[in-house]
Amino acid sequence: MAVEQYEKIPSAVVVSEELRRRLHRIWETRPGLFGWIATVDHKTIGIRYIVTAFAFLVAGGIEALIMRIQLAGPEQRLISPEAYNQLFSMHGITMIFLYALPILSGFSNYLFPLLLGTRDMAFPRLNAFSYWVYLASGLFMYASFLIGQAPNDGWFNYAPYSLKPFNPGLNMDFYALGMVFFGISTTVGAANFVVTFLRNRAPGMSINRLPIMVWGTMTISVGILLANPAVSLAFFLLWMDRQFGTHFYDTAGGGKPLLWQHLFWIFAHPWVYIIVLPAMGMVSDALPVFCRRPLVAYTLVILGTITTMVLGFGVWVHHMFATGIPFLATSFFSGASFIITIPSAIAVFAWIATIWTGRVVVTTAFLYFASFIAMFTIGGVSGVMTASVPADLQLHDTYFVVAHIHYVLIGINLFGVLGAVYFWFPKMTGRMLGERLGRWNFWITFFGFNLAFLPMHWTGLLGMPRRIYTYPENVGWTSVNLTTTIGAFILAVGILLLFINVLVSLRRGAVAGPNPWDAPTLEWAVSSPPPPYNFAVIPVVASRHPLWEDRLEEASGRSSIDRGLALDHGKEILATSVIDARPDAVLKMPDDNPWPFVLTLALSVLFTALLLHWWIVAGAGAAACVLAILIWLWPRAELGQKEGAAYE
Ligand code: HEM
Ligand SMILES: [Cu+2]
């Protein structure tokens, strides 16, 4: 719909203080404990996700540092082999599940409605629920440390070592049930992103005008919905094997350990793209701001994002080259793994071209994004090396692979996220992060990371297997390991500086104003931090860069930000059509609601009881869940939907 047409709508109003006050009253979360538990504000939930994910990053980081002290020299006896097993397993689980995805969900939750020009996510209560379940399932898995029985078979948890005869404690049960629990959070979260993407955009924000991170999150959300069932099933079957003596994975009863590997990796390879694509999206949106030009090859980058996700479902067997599967299968999956580098390379070239043809403003955020590109490339190249079967048979289960995963995960996820923190912190808090401390933070993190992980490629080539708690003196692994340990501590100091910067800037940072970076997208059109209702009137979008329309020629008209629909008869947002974002209907949004929290408590009781075999309590927990869902979903008169006829 053209903006001109939209402006003729009789009900469009100009923003006024009166309107702002009214919207504030409608959208504000109630104060006190009730409001804290019951809030459904996507901004609060987003920040909770980010803070919690950083807390888990610190936990996972401490686990890593303990491992690195143990590995600093040969024949050390700081921790027992069993403790080492639990540490590397919880480290991987924490980083992959409790940090890497949730941190991105945090940014997406905070930013989605702001980027899309709306007032909340499609399902605000589900959003609160997905956060609470994430927190509860994370604490559930971490509770295993309290009884000294944390998961101890690595994050990929191969059978048969995970089966009862070899692993009689509760370790595996914590992981198995914890992952089924956690899967609830990611599934409902993903559904929420998909629907918000499809139906809750500002009028005129057609799908070719969306920020890339929105596309990235949408793509991985579909990926999560397809991948998650495999892992929930895998862990459920494992739990059955362990509790009830079924034989899915156990060879003695005719089961197949390889079934585990297939189910796990058909989930987990897509997952590694799931935890990087939104970070790539954030860089695609934020990097161009510091190059003072739009991203090069917008459409190709989006197609590359989608292609990566689709191909990501067809390469899982490259984790299983060493299992003795038929030659034909290895060739196919090797080929597929080579092909998947093409769409990622497109993004890399697009970023480089954007820097190349832009006018670069060097900030801490920019430094993170630029180094992200370099490390992405290093991690990508070591990945292609392992995609070749003969090379992989040498490299498999050595430290080379550990170097590779850290280059991609820290390089893409962590560095992208750190840049994003510098970029969006002003929006979230109203204050700038200190640039001076920022430079220290960046250079120390960057140096520490590379000092730790670059030599690790050699550690692997020298033949050091991963997941060993110590090594003998005369095999030539000592100096590389010592270097890695020193690098790891420097990296930790770098991250610490970020936290210091955040704490200092929250109090004393320069006041940001709505758009400190002179950025083009809608979140920068509102105050920092944004008011509870985000936009006083629903904006109308005429181009991909609404705030740069005065200097770019791409817009057919002008976006309208202070004149539009007020939607102030209660908590209301606009539903728009899937492709062109034409207004469809006015949706009534739910108020603060404690039931997502209560349902999470009931689920926690259920899972804890299953863990401890308290079957009666488990039954009660399940009944409580049903009850909580019923109350939550009970139809209420005030939550209706108004037909949008008046807006056509
Ligand atoms: C302070 C930074 C970090 C250090 C020093 C570090 C160090 C380590 C070490 C020593 C291992 C165990 C290797 C072994 O014995 O096999 C490991 C494994 C692993 N790390 Fe990290 N790591 C760090 C950050 C991260 C991050 C940010 C991620 C992901 C986002 C990550 C993901 C993994 C994974 C998936 C494994 C494999 C676990 C397994 O074998 O089951 N790490 N890391
Ligand atoms: Cu893979």
Short account of what is shown:
The chain has helices spanning 3-7, 17-27, 32-38, 42-71, 81-116, 124-146, 171-199, 212-244, 257-274, 277-286, 298-312, 327-339, 341-357, 364-387, 389-395, 399-429, 435-461, 478-508, 595-612, 615-633, and strands at residues 13-14, 538-540, 560-565, 572-576, 583-588, 641-643. Residues 643-648 have low confidence and may be disordered. The protein has 648 residues and is mainly α.
Explain the layout of strands and helices.
Elements: H1 3-7, E1 13-14, H2 17-27, H3 32-38, H4 42-71, H5 81-116, H6 124-146, H7 171-199, H8 212-244, H9 257-274, H10 277-286, H11 298-312, H12 327-339, H13 341-357, H14 364-387, H15 389-395, H16 399-429, H17 435-461, H18 478-508, E2 538-540, E3 560-565, E4 572-576, E5 583-588, H19 595-612, H20 615-633, E6 641-643
Antiparallel strand pairs: 1-3, 2-3, 4-5, 5-6
Helix pairs in contact: 4-5, 4-6, 4-18, 5-6, 5-7, 5-16, 6-7, 6-19, 7-8, 7-19, 8-9, 8-10, 8-11, 10-16, 11-13, 13-14, 14-16, 14-17, 16-17, 17-18, 19-20
The chain binds protoporphyrin IX containing FE and copper (II) ion (CU).
